[in-house]
User: Fold this.
Amino acid sequence: MIHFEIVGGGGEADEDRDTSPDAVVDFGHAQEAVKGKCKAKAAKTGGGDTTKAEKPKRAKKEKPVKEPRENKTETLVSMLLEANGATVAEVAKAFSWQPHTTRAAISTLPKKKQFPEGHTLSSEKVEERGGRVYRIVKV
Assistant:
């Protein structure tokens, strides 16, 4: 017979058990007690069936169709694709941006490849328009 020590105690109040750390318990008896608890738990939950019952699916609510938001990058690209291009001041006024924000947006276009393939960003200083004119031109 194999004996194991079980530390701690607990259990039914009507039984006298030795709960000292030196208590020796028959493993077979302990194993049967655990199986009994598992069977009791399975009976409470509706049996030992491990498969879950499928729940009926609810109908999904239809979401209202949202109109696409204005894409400022696409609008900026279309401004720069025009033959006469756009200055920083013109773009800043169109979007209500600060000049440094406008320059940052223009400078990131080539890095993010936001304009059509085979095109490049060019700029030239035009005094009549009040500064540098940016254009997206075909290579």
About this structure: The longest helix spans residues 27-44. The radius of gyration is 39 Å. Residues 1 and 26 are 8 Å apart (CA to CA).
